[in-house]
Structures are given as C-alpha cells and as structure tokens.
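FIELD: query
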Amino acid sequence: MSIGINIRRKNTNRFYFFIFKFILRTN
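FIELD: result
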C-alpha cells in the first residue's frame, strides 16, 4: 500500500485529472 500511496503522491494532479475526466464522462 505504501507504494501505491507514493505513486499517488507523485501523480496527484494526474490522478485528480483522471477522476475529474471520468466523472464528466459518466455525466
């Protein structure tokens, strides 16, 4: 899990952008 957290920390902007795009696509 620590590795996943590290990756998320490094790609925080990318992760949030992906979620935002996914939400927009869902709507």
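FIELD: remark
The mean pLDDT is 77.
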